[in-house]
Design brief:
454 residues, alpha/beta, Aspartate Aminotransferase, domain 1, Aspartate Aminotransferase, domain 2, 2 domains, 3-stranded antiparallel β-sheet, 16 helices, globular, binds pyridoxal-5'-phosphate
Length: 454
């Protein structure tokens, strides 16, 4: 096989600098052992998120100049509307400044207190926005022992049916599918699962909406792994996929290949009117939704570029390339690797640290200390919650560390470096200390939490 090679060349560079070990130790303490509090200039390789961190293309940069900054009816909006209609097939397109703004407008409009929202797995902002308006987010992802299952992001249809029967269809205004399924490792959802979810929900008259952030990566997995799609284009796969839903929420900071932006799109004119009322109140006028005209241009081009199969092949394989290296080193990772990130089992790697002391968060701190690599915890700190009745903390099954790979930003030698940092951490892992919380916010606490070593 030929070497895995970036399908682009570099036109602009941004320098990065590795601080000394004592400097990194000091920055970590200053950041209260929460890498969200670090300054980015103190980070060498930044794998905190793939959100808004993409490198834009020369085509996108040049499109910025075409941004129409008119308050109402800007040309740039109509370009975005057209491309969304083409790929996603939904009639009404409402720009928003990022995904969670779309979540806020949509869930505020459709949910009543006590309503349930089933999903394969809700992302943390989605869960928070549903809970914020009194809704109950329910995760129904399949449980499989087969570690090479090609579509680990699928929803369990049996459990979905049970939930509807248990709480009643009146209590479920919609179902959602997150593609790819970010919180369980960026794992894809199969076309068959999407189709069957649509059919099941339809029998109860419940609409299906997509959390579409990584739709192109999901489509690429369908093309590679699902029978009948090998000869379809990525665009054709996307068009079929979205035809099974009534609409979607999109963060263009992911597969929009843009640094900011998003949209809500659907076919329901009444719903769009209601969402627009809130849009004008919270985000901005109907044709810009909190974005500059130039942002709309960048998103419109990004959505087209992301459909390029050479790009997607490199993207998905670069993630795998890092995952394979970690696997060879004996670092426990979630397999197979997903579309945008490698997930490391921090709980297993640092098994001497109890769940209550956030082993995955401790691993993120070690990766920074040993090599200036920034990652994010997806475990007890991000996902545990207090049980309302017993008052006890419920911890998630796994304490993961997510190494999210920004799109078109890092080369494979950066990935080699990250693997070498893991090698270093592994040598010293017995000495890594657990952490305890000393400050937490009521919502999305992982962003602002402060911790101390125990
Ligand atoms: C990023 C993300 C969101 C929220 O989008 P933002 O642009 O960060 O507000 C929602 N769902 C999923 C699956 C995401 O990955």
């Amino acid at each position: 096989m030929k070497a895995l090679v970036e399908p682009y060349k570099i036109k602009t560079v941004e320098s990065i600098k590795l601080l000394s070990y004592p400097e990194r130790e000091q920055r970590l303490k200053q950041a209260h052992f929460n890498l969200f509090n670090l300054k980015s200039e103190d980070v060498f390789i930044d794998l905190l998120t793939d959100s808004g961190t993409s490198a834009m293309s020369d085509s996108q940069w040049s499109a910025l100049m075409l941004g129409d900054e008119a308050y109402a009816g800007a040309k740039s909006y109509y370009k975005l509307e057209k491309i969304v209609q083409e790929i996603f097939g939904y009639k009404h397109v409402i720009p928003v400044h990022q995904g969670r703004a779309g979540e806020h407008l949509f869930f505020t409009t459709v949910l009543k207190k006590g309503d349930y929202v089933p999903s394969n797995t809700h992302f943390d902002t989605t869960r928070a926005n549903i809970s914020y308006v009194g809704g109950i987010p329910v995760d129904l992802v399949i449980q499989t022992k087969d570690c090479e299952h090609p579509f680990k992001g699928n929803i369990d249809l049996g459990k979905l049916d049970d939930l509807i029967k248990k709480v009643g269809k009146e209590k479920i205004p919609l179902g959602t599918l997150t593609i790819t399924n970010n919180s369980v490792g960026g794992q894809p959802v199969s076309m068959q699962n999407i189709k069957e979810t649509k059919e099941l929900l339809s029998t109860y008259g419940i609409p299906l909406y997509f959390d579409a952030c990584r739709f192109a990566e999901n489509a690429y997995f369908i093309k590679k792994r699902e029978k009948g799609y090998e000869n379809k284009t990525i665009k054709e796969i996307c068009q079929e996929l979205f035809s099974y839903g009534e609409g979607c929420i999109m963060s263009a900071k992911k597969d929009g290949l843009a640094n900011m932006g998003g949209f809500f799109a659907c076919n329901d004119a009444t719903l769009v009117d209601k969402v627009t009322h809130l849009l004008v109140l919270f985000e901005g006028f109907r044709t810009y939704g909190g974005l500059a005209g130039r942002d709309l241009e960048a998103v419109a081009r990004g959505l087209q570029e992301v459909l390029d199969e050479d790009y997607l092949a490199f993207r998905v394989n670069q993630v795998k390339y890092l995952g394979d290296q970690l696997d060879k080193l004996g670092v426990p990772i979630v397999k197979p690797t997903g579309g945008h990130a490698v997930f490391v089992d921090g709980g297993e790697m640092l098994s001497h640290i109890k769940k209550e002391n956030y082993p995955a968060q401790a691993l993120t701190c070690s990766l920074y200390k040993e090599g200036g690599v920034r990652s994010v915890e997806v475990g007890g700190l991000m996902l545990s919650r207090k049980d309302k009745e017993s008052g006890k903390m419920i911890f998630p099954d796994a304490d993961l560390v997510r190494l999210a790979i920004p799109r078109r930003v890092y080369t494979n030698s950066h990935m080699d470096y990250v693997a070498s940092v893991f090698e270093e951490v592994k040598k010293k892992k017995g000495k890594v200390k657990g952490l305890k919380l000393v400050y937490e916010a009521p919502w999305l606490r992982h962003f602002t939490a402060k911790l101390e070593e125990v």
